[in-house]
Amino acid sequence: MSGEKNVAVSGELLEQITKAAQVQGKTPDEVAEDALRKYLGHVRLDGLSSYGQAQARRLGINESDIPRLISEIRATLKSDR
């Protein structure tokens, strides 16, 4: 999907975006696009985190198991060389 789409923001937020853009030598549109890309990255990361937590629950793994599991997989990888 390509093209432009206008997005409405409050006057106060637009003022902050404009000031930040000036400091960075960017346009307000560039700052907004950067922010939205970062937001989408966080959404994806949150989804991956939720998936990982669900998998850990399903497998009965808790946080205290992690160091042991890392050691075990590292030992397995070394022995495969």
Folded structure, characterized:
This protein is mainly α and 81 residues long. The protein has one domain. The chain is 74% helix and 0% strand. The chain is built from 3 helices and no strands. Helix 1 crosses helix 2. The termini are far apart.
Provide the succession of SSEs: HHH
Number of domains: 1
Which ranges are low-confidence, i.e. pLDDT below 50, for 5 or more consecutive residues?
none
Bin the helical content.
over 70%
User: How many E-type strands?
Assistant: 0
Name the shape in a single word: elongated
Roughly how many Å is the radius of gyration? 22 Å
> Could you state the oligomeric state of the chains shown?
single chain
Quickly count the helices.
3
Distance separating the two termini: 46 Å
Structural class: mainly alpha
Average of the residue pLDDT scores: 94
Largest sheet: none
Write the layout of secondary structure elements.
Layout: H1 11-24, H2 28-59, H3 66-79
Helix pairs in contact: 1-2
Descriptive tags:
single chain; 81 residues; mainly alpha
Offer a quick outline of the entry.
It contains 3 helices and no strands.
